[in-house]
Design brief:
This protein is α+β, with helices and mostly antiparallel strands and 273 residues long. The protein has one domain (7-272): Creatine Amidinohydrolase, CATH 3.90.230.10. The chain has 5 helices and 15 strands. The chain has helices spanning 7-30, 37-50, 117-135, 143-158, 250-272; strands at 54-55, 67-71, 74-76, 90-99, 102-111, 161-162, 168-170, 177-181, 198-201, 204-206, 212-214, 221-223, 229-231, 234-238, 243-245. The strands form 4 sheets. A 5-stranded antiparallel β-sheet has the order 8-7-9-14-15, with helices on both faces. A hairpin with a 2-residue loop joins strand 4 and strand 5 (102-111). Helix 1 packs parallel to helix 5 (250-272) and helix 3 packs antiparallel against helix 4 (143-158). The protein is globular. The termini are far apart. The relative contact order is 0.18. Bound molecules: magnesium ion (2 copies). One magnesium ion binds at residues 94, 96, 105, 107, 202, 233.
Protein backbone atom coordinates (compact mmCIF):
# COMPACT_ATOMS: atom_id res chain seq x y z
CA UNK A 1 0.00 0.00 0.00
CA UNK A 2 1.47 3.30 -1.17
CA UNK A 3 0.18 6.52 0.42
CA UNK A 4 -0.22 9.94 -1.17
CA UNK A 5 0.03 12.56 1.59
CA UNK A 6 -1.76 15.89 1.65
CA UNK A 7 0.33 19.04 2.07
CA UNK A 8 -0.94 19.25 5.67
CA UNK A 9 0.33 15.71 6.35
CA UNK A 10 3.66 16.50 4.68
CA UNK A 11 4.09 19.50 7.00
CA UNK A 12 3.47 17.23 10.02
CA UNK A 13 6.04 14.74 8.69
CA UNK A 14 8.45 17.65 8.16
CA UNK A 15 8.18 18.50 11.87
CA UNK A 16 9.14 14.95 12.82
CA UNK A 17 11.93 14.91 10.24
CA UNK A 18 13.33 18.24 11.48
CA UNK A 19 13.26 16.92 15.05
CA UNK A 20 15.49 14.09 13.78
CA UNK A 21 17.78 16.73 12.23
CA UNK A 22 17.85 18.67 15.51
CA UNK A 23 18.77 15.45 17.34
CA UNK A 24 21.58 14.69 14.87
CA UNK A 25 22.79 18.27 15.35
CA UNK A 26 23.02 17.62 19.10
CA UNK A 27 25.02 14.49 18.25
CA UNK A 28 27.40 16.61 16.12
CA UNK A 29 28.01 18.95 19.07
CA UNK A 30 28.40 16.08 21.56
CA UNK A 31 30.78 13.90 19.51
CA UNK A 32 34.45 13.64 20.42
CA UNK A 33 37.06 10.93 20.91
CA UNK A 34 36.79 9.21 24.30
CA UNK A 35 33.00 9.03 24.65
CA UNK A 36 30.96 5.83 24.43
CA UNK A 37 28.28 5.24 21.83
CA UNK A 38 25.83 4.53 24.69
CA UNK A 39 26.35 8.06 26.04
CA UNK A 40 25.31 9.44 22.62
CA UNK A 41 22.16 7.32 22.65
CA UNK A 42 21.20 8.49 26.15
CA UNK A 43 21.75 12.15 25.26
CA UNK A 44 19.68 11.78 22.09
CA UNK A 45 16.79 9.98 23.79
CA UNK A 46 16.56 12.71 26.46
CA UNK A 47 16.67 15.41 23.75
CA UNK A 48 13.88 13.77 21.72
CA UNK A 49 11.62 13.26 24.77
CA UNK A 50 12.31 16.79 26.14
CA UNK A 51 11.07 18.11 22.80
CA UNK A 52 7.84 16.11 22.84
CA UNK A 53 8.89 13.30 20.52
CA UNK A 54 9.21 9.55 20.89
CA UNK A 55 12.28 7.72 19.52
CA UNK A 56 10.85 5.63 16.64
CA UNK A 57 13.51 2.92 16.90
CA UNK A 58 13.19 2.14 20.62
CA UNK A 59 11.32 -1.16 20.81
CA UNK A 60 10.99 -1.43 16.99
CA UNK A 61 11.31 -5.15 16.27
CA UNK A 62 12.78 -5.43 19.78
CA UNK A 63 15.61 -2.93 19.14
CA UNK A 64 16.50 -1.62 22.62
CA UNK A 65 17.95 1.82 21.80
CA UNK A 66 16.89 5.19 20.38
CA UNK A 67 19.66 5.44 17.79
CA UNK A 68 21.43 3.02 15.53
CA UNK A 69 25.13 3.86 15.88
CA UNK A 70 27.38 2.17 13.36
CA UNK A 71 31.14 2.64 13.75
CA UNK A 72 33.61 2.22 10.85
CA UNK A 73 32.95 -1.17 9.18
CA UNK A 74 29.47 -1.36 10.69
CA UNK A 75 27.06 -0.48 7.88
CA UNK A 76 23.78 0.01 9.80
CA UNK A 77 21.84 -1.15 12.88
CA UNK A 78 24.85 -0.86 15.19
CA UNK A 79 23.86 -1.07 18.85
CA UNK A 80 24.96 1.71 21.21
CA UNK A 81 27.17 0.34 23.99
CA UNK A 82 30.49 0.58 25.80
CA UNK A 83 32.49 1.11 22.59
CA UNK A 84 34.73 4.17 23.06
CA UNK A 85 35.13 6.43 20.02
CA UNK A 86 38.65 7.26 18.95
CA UNK A 87 40.28 9.80 16.67
CA UNK A 88 39.89 8.68 13.04
CA UNK A 89 36.62 6.77 13.49
CA UNK A 90 33.53 7.42 11.45
CA UNK A 91 30.09 6.82 12.91
CA UNK A 92 26.81 6.54 11.09
CA UNK A 93 23.97 7.69 13.29
CA UNK A 94 20.45 6.75 12.20
CA UNK A 95 17.52 8.34 14.04
CA UNK A 96 13.74 8.24 13.86
CA UNK A 97 11.27 10.47 15.71
CA UNK A 98 7.52 9.88 16.08
CA UNK A 99 5.44 12.99 16.74
CA UNK A 100 1.80 13.87 15.96
CA UNK A 101 1.27 10.31 14.63
CA UNK A 102 3.98 10.54 11.94
CA UNK A 103 7.58 9.42 11.75
CA UNK A 104 10.65 11.22 10.44
CA UNK A 105 13.78 9.21 9.56
CA UNK A 106 17.26 10.50 8.76
CA UNK A 107 20.87 9.38 9.04
CA UNK A 108 24.28 11.06 8.89
CA UNK A 109 27.83 9.74 8.97
CA UNK A 110 30.17 11.79 11.16
CA UNK A 111 33.95 11.95 11.19
CA UNK A 112 35.50 11.74 14.67
CA UNK A 113 38.64 13.89 14.76
CA UNK A 114 41.12 13.39 11.92
CA UNK A 115 39.85 10.87 9.36
CA UNK A 116 41.80 9.51 6.37
CA UNK A 117 41.21 11.44 3.12
CA UNK A 118 39.83 8.38 1.28
CA UNK A 119 37.27 7.90 4.04
CA UNK A 120 36.31 11.59 4.04
CA UNK A 121 35.79 11.26 0.29
CA UNK A 122 33.51 8.24 0.90
CA UNK A 123 31.39 10.42 3.23
CA UNK A 124 31.21 13.29 0.71
CA UNK A 125 30.37 10.98 -2.18
CA UNK A 126 27.71 9.06 -0.26
CA UNK A 127 26.04 12.36 0.70
CA UNK A 128 26.25 13.50 -2.93
CA UNK A 129 24.63 10.24 -4.09
CA UNK A 130 21.73 10.87 -1.72
CA UNK A 131 21.08 14.24 -3.35
CA UNK A 132 21.35 12.69 -6.81
CA UNK A 133 18.68 10.17 -5.76
CA UNK A 134 16.48 12.92 -4.31
CA UNK A 135 16.66 14.85 -7.59
CA UNK A 136 15.03 11.85 -9.30
CA UNK A 137 12.20 11.59 -6.73
CA UNK A 138 9.70 13.49 -8.85
CA UNK A 139 6.20 12.82 -10.05
CA UNK A 140 6.03 10.36 -12.94
CA UNK A 141 9.51 8.94 -12.45
CA UNK A 142 10.06 5.38 -11.26
CA UNK A 143 11.80 3.96 -8.19
CA UNK A 144 14.52 2.63 -10.50
CA UNK A 145 15.39 6.19 -11.54
CA UNK A 146 16.30 6.99 -7.92
CA UNK A 147 18.15 3.69 -7.54
CA UNK A 148 20.10 4.19 -10.75
CA UNK A 149 21.18 7.72 -9.80
CA UNK A 150 22.66 6.47 -6.51
CA UNK A 151 24.35 3.41 -7.98
CA UNK A 152 25.68 5.23 -11.04
CA UNK A 153 27.48 7.87 -8.97
CA UNK A 154 28.80 5.55 -6.26
CA UNK A 155 29.54 2.19 -7.88
CA UNK A 156 30.14 3.12 -11.53
CA UNK A 157 31.76 6.54 -11.21
CA UNK A 158 33.62 6.06 -7.93
CA UNK A 159 34.10 2.30 -7.57
CA UNK A 160 32.38 1.85 -4.20
CA UNK A 161 30.35 -1.14 -3.03
CA UNK A 162 26.60 -0.48 -2.91
CA UNK A 163 24.83 -2.44 -0.18
CA UNK A 164 21.98 -4.51 -1.64
CA UNK A 165 20.50 -6.23 1.39
CA UNK A 166 19.10 -3.03 2.91
CA UNK A 167 17.00 -0.41 1.14
CA UNK A 168 15.10 2.83 1.58
CA UNK A 169 11.34 2.87 2.11
CA UNK A 170 8.14 4.86 2.37
CA UNK A 171 7.73 6.62 5.71
CA UNK A 172 4.66 8.12 7.38
CA UNK A 173 2.30 6.71 10.00
CA UNK A 174 4.59 3.70 10.05
CA UNK A 175 8.38 3.87 10.13
CA UNK A 176 8.66 1.49 7.17
CA UNK A 177 6.01 1.61 4.46
CA UNK A 178 5.90 0.66 0.78
CA UNK A 179 7.58 1.05 -1.60
CA UNK A 180 11.11 -0.23 -1.10
CA UNK A 181 13.78 2.11 -2.50
CA UNK A 182 16.93 0.15 -3.42
CA UNK A 183 20.25 1.92 -3.96
CA UNK A 184 20.92 -0.04 -7.14
CA UNK A 185 18.82 -0.56 -10.24
CA UNK A 186 17.98 0.47 -13.75
CA UNK A 187 16.43 3.64 -15.10
CA UNK A 188 12.73 3.22 -15.81
CA UNK A 189 12.40 0.08 -13.65
CA UNK A 190 10.08 -0.35 -10.68
CA UNK A 191 6.92 1.36 -9.54
CA UNK A 192 5.90 4.80 -10.71
CA UNK A 193 6.14 7.48 -8.03
CA UNK A 194 3.62 10.25 -7.48
CA UNK A 195 3.73 13.73 -5.94
CA UNK A 196 2.76 13.44 -2.27
CA UNK A 197 4.55 10.17 -1.60
CA UNK A 198 7.10 10.41 1.21
CA UNK A 199 10.22 8.24 0.83
CA UNK A 200 13.22 7.65 3.07
CA UNK A 201 16.09 7.59 0.55
CA UNK A 202 19.20 6.18 2.20
CA UNK A 203 22.34 5.12 0.34
CA UNK A 204 24.57 2.71 2.31
CA UNK A 205 27.92 2.77 0.53
CA UNK A 206 31.06 0.74 1.29
CA UNK A 207 34.64 1.81 0.61
CA UNK A 208 35.40 -1.78 -0.45
CA UNK A 209 33.19 -4.69 -1.53
CA UNK A 210 29.40 -4.51 -1.53
CA UNK A 211 28.94 -7.71 0.49
CA UNK A 212 27.81 -7.49 4.11
CA UNK A 213 26.81 -9.86 6.87
CA UNK A 214 24.94 -9.68 10.17
CA UNK A 215 26.63 -10.39 13.50
CA UNK A 216 25.27 -12.95 15.98
CA UNK A 217 23.40 -10.16 17.85
CA UNK A 218 21.08 -10.33 14.80
CA UNK A 219 21.23 -6.52 14.32
CA UNK A 220 24.75 -5.30 13.53
CA UNK A 221 25.42 -5.34 9.78
CA UNK A 222 29.14 -5.17 8.86
CA UNK A 223 31.13 -5.08 5.64
CA UNK A 224 32.57 -8.42 4.56
CA UNK A 225 36.05 -6.95 4.00
CA UNK A 226 36.07 -4.87 7.19
CA UNK A 227 36.42 -1.59 5.27
CA UNK A 228 34.38 1.44 6.36
CA UNK A 229 30.85 2.18 5.25
CA UNK A 230 28.81 5.39 5.09
CA UNK A 231 25.07 6.05 5.38
CA UNK A 232 23.14 9.25 4.65
CA UNK A 233 19.35 9.44 4.68
CA UNK A 234 16.67 12.07 4.17
CA UNK A 235 12.93 11.78 4.60
CA UNK A 236 11.93 13.09 1.17
CA UNK A 237 8.63 14.36 -0.29
CA UNK A 238 8.04 13.49 -3.93
CA UNK A 239 7.19 16.75 -5.74
CA UNK A 240 6.38 17.75 -9.30
CA UNK A 241 9.93 18.44 -10.54
CA UNK A 242 12.23 16.89 -7.91
CA UNK A 243 12.22 15.47 -4.45
CA UNK A 244 12.19 17.79 -1.45
CA UNK A 245 14.15 16.73 1.63
CA UNK A 246 11.97 17.19 4.72
CA UNK A 247 14.89 16.53 7.08
CA UNK A 248 17.87 18.91 6.80
CA UNK A 249 21.63 18.51 7.08
CA UNK A 250 22.21 22.30 7.26
CA UNK A 251 22.23 22.56 11.09
CA UNK A 252 24.37 19.41 11.35
CA UNK A 253 26.91 20.80 8.88
CA UNK A 254 26.96 24.13 10.75
CA UNK A 255 27.73 22.28 14.01
CA UNK A 256 30.47 20.28 12.27
CA UNK A 257 32.00 23.51 10.94
CA UNK A 258 31.89 25.14 14.38
CA UNK A 259 33.63 22.07 15.87
CA UNK A 260 36.35 22.21 13.21
CA UNK A 261 36.95 25.93 13.85
CA UNK A 262 37.09 25.36 17.60
CA UNK A 263 39.60 22.53 17.13
CA UNK A 264 41.85 24.59 14.87
CA UNK A 265 41.67 27.52 17.35
CA UNK A 266 42.73 25.13 20.14
CA UNK A 267 45.54 23.83 17.94
CA UNK A 268 46.82 27.32 17.16
CA UNK A 269 46.57 28.36 20.81
CA UNK A 270 48.58 25.25 21.79
CA UNK A 271 51.19 26.00 19.11
CA UNK A 272 51.54 29.60 20.31
CA UNK A 273 52.60 28.51 23.78
MG1 LIG B 1 16.94 5.77 9.18
MG1 LIG C 1 15.15 4.54 6.95
Amino acid sequence: MVYIRSNEEIEIIRKSALMVSATLTEVAKFLKPGITTLSIDKMAEAFIRDNGGVPSFKGYGGFPYSLCISVNEVVVHGMPGSHVLKDGDIISVDCGVFMNNYHGDSAYTFAVGEVKPEVLKLLRDTKESLYRGIAQAHDGNRIGDISFAVEDFTARQNGYGVVRELVGHGVGRKLHEDPQVPNFGRKGDGKKIRAGQVLAIEPMINLGVKEVYTLSDKWTVVTKDGKPSAHFEHTTAVRKDKGEPLSSFAPIEAAEKANAELNSAHYEAAMAH
